[in-house]
Structure formats: structure tokens, C-alpha cells
Design brief:
With 279 residues, this protein is α/β, with parallel strands linked by helices. The protein is built from 9 helices and 12 strands. The chain has a 6-stranded parallel beta sheet with strand order 3-2-1-4-5-6, with helices on both faces. The protein has a 6-stranded mixed beta sheet with strand order 8-9-10-7-11-12, covered by helices on one side.
């Protein structure tokens, strides 16, 4: 049995992944066994409601790392990810780092360089970009020329929790997954709570839109023939877990590390170009 440790109580991703591994038993032989969190205090009853069939609530990160065969960092704040991830990597444990991958490009580079130096397989980021449907769209883009790509998802720039990067990372990672990490220029404009970002490549451009007027992930490919997709986000946790399990089985990271760094850098550029309220 491969025992997975979860770092983070905040948010619901631990709940969703524990459903996939423990309740649905989607991947026999893999079990979310341990949980540790500094981001929120839970009673044993609350932990049991939020995490399905997790065996033990660890008292420290070191304990969780020691007990686990692999670790998933699922804290909401990207600012916390680097300090957790580096300790897991130094312990030699395969790692999943949730979105936003990190809060800064420097931290993203630090994590990925450490993973390469220690030979520890690393995965994570937006689960939406790991939908199997995205792989079909990628294959289609290799067959046909689409000079323009549109990606839309939900995010609130006035979130009282300062969570805009938490949700905007979905569109940024989707952009990198479909169009590549080597963008040349970023322009952004905000109208009310809607933010439109034009990402320029050498031979393509991507328009990323975050809005409160959609519940779906929308992808539009524009060329001689235009194609549109509404992605079923309910499948993202199973599809993301599938790639994580494959990495644990093969030792091969499913996503090039520079794509995580590029997506973090893209969100940073958007934040710099748009005025956000300060606390």
C-alpha cells in the first residue's frame, strides 16, 4: 500500500482527493493515510468529516513526511508551498504541489531546481489543466493551426481572501499547457470584476479571461475552423490523481518543470499590470 500524506486543512482539495483515493478507491493500492495542517485548527470530528478514512492526524510536518511514501501539499496559500515542498524534497519523497504552485517565480524556480538536484519527482499545479479533455485539445492543436486561443474561467479580483491568484492560476496553467511556456509579451486590462489578458507568442496569441459570469472552463480555438469546448471540471481531481499515481509508478514527472515556472510568472505579470486592493 502506498501511503500518501496530505499537508493542509484549508480549502476542500484534501477532501476531494481523499474521496478519490479512499472512498471511491479509484486507484487500488494508493491511500491518503496522513494529514497535517497549520492553516486551520480542526477537531477530530471535523477532520473525519473533511477527510475520508485518513488514518492519522500528524502533529508535525516531519512526522507526516516520515510516515508517508508520497506527499501532497494542498494548502490554499501559495506563499506556504515552497517551505513545505523543500522539506519534502530533501527527504526524498515524491511530491504533489497544489495550485497556485507558488506565490512567486523565484520560489517556483527554487522548488523545481531542488527537485532536479535531489532527483525527486515533482508534479502538481492546476488540476483543471490535467483533465483528459485537455490532452485531446492538445492533440487537436498539433493537427490543425489555431493562431488564437481563448481560455475563460471564474475568478474574483476583489476576493476578500486575496484569492485571485488561487483561481487565476487555472487559466495561466491552461495557457501554458496549450500554447507553451515561451510567451513573449503580456498585456492586461480590467473592467469591473472582469480581467482580460493577452498573451503573445511568436506565432500565436492567447486571450485569458477571468470573470464571475461563468461556472465552466471554456476553451476556444480560433483558426480556419473554430472549435469550442466546455470542460467538465468535476473530473479534474480523478484526472489529476491519475497522473500523480502514474508518476509514483514510473518516477517520471508528467509535466516539464519549466511549465510550472512559466505559469507562475504569467500570474505575477498579470498582478503587476492590474491594480488590486491592498489589505
Amino acid at each position: 500500500m502506498v501511503k500518501i500524506g496530505c499537508v493542509g486543512y484549508g480549502g476542500r482539495h484534501g477532501e476531494f482527493f481523499s474521496r478519490v483515493f479512499n472512498q471511491q478507491n479509484a486507484f487500488p493500492g494508493y491511500h491518503m493515510s496522513y494529514v497535517f495542517g497549520e492553516d486551520e485548527v480542526l477537531t477530530p470530528e471535523e477532520r473525519q468529516r473533511r477527510f475520508f478514512q485518513v488514518e492519522h492526524n500528524c502533529s508535525s510536518l516531519d512526522e507526516l513526511i516520515r510516515c508517508s511514501d508520497a506527499v501532497m501539499i494542498l494548502t490554499v496559500r501559495g506563499e506556504d508551498h515552497a517551505r513545505y515542498a523543500l522539506k519534502v524534497i530533501e527527504a526524498g519523497k515524491p511530491l504533489f504541489v497544489d495550485k497556485p504552485f507558488t506565490a512567486s517565480l523565484d520560489e517556483a524556480r527554487e522548488i523545481t531546481r531542488a527537485a532536479e538536484a535531489w532527483g525527486v519527482p515533482l508534479f502538481g499545479g492546476s488540476t483543471l489543466r490535467h483533465l483528459q479533455k485537455v490532452e485531446e485539445i492538445q492533440a487537436l492543436m498539433q493537427q490543425e493551426d489555431f493562431p488564437a486561443v481563448g481560455i475563460t474561467y471564474r475568478a474574483d479580483p476583489e476576493s476578500p481572501l486575496g484569492a485571485y491568484p488561487f483561481y487565476a492560476s487555472h487559466t495561466a496553467e491552461m495557457c501554458v499547457a496549450l500554447c507553451g511556456p515561451d510567451y513573449r509579451q503580456v498585456e492586461a486590462v480590467r473592467v469591473g470584476k472582469n480581467i482580460c489578458t493577452l498573451v503573445r507568442y511568436d506565432h500565436r496569441c492567447a486571450l485569458l479571461t477571468t470573470t464571475l459570469d461563468t461556472q465552466l472552463v471554456n476553451v476556444h480555438l480560433m483558426g480556419k475552423i473554430c472549435r469550442s469546448f466546455d470542460l467538465n471540471q468535476d473530473l479534474c481531481y480523478v484526472d489529476g490523481a491519475r497522473k500523480f499515481v502514474r508518476m509514483l509508478e514510473t518516477g517520471v514527472p508528467p509535466v516539464p518543470y519549466n511549465e510550472f515556472c512559466s505559469a507562475v510568472g504569467l500570474v505575477e505579470e498579470i498582478m503587476e499590470k492590474i491594480s488590486f486592493p491592498t489589505e
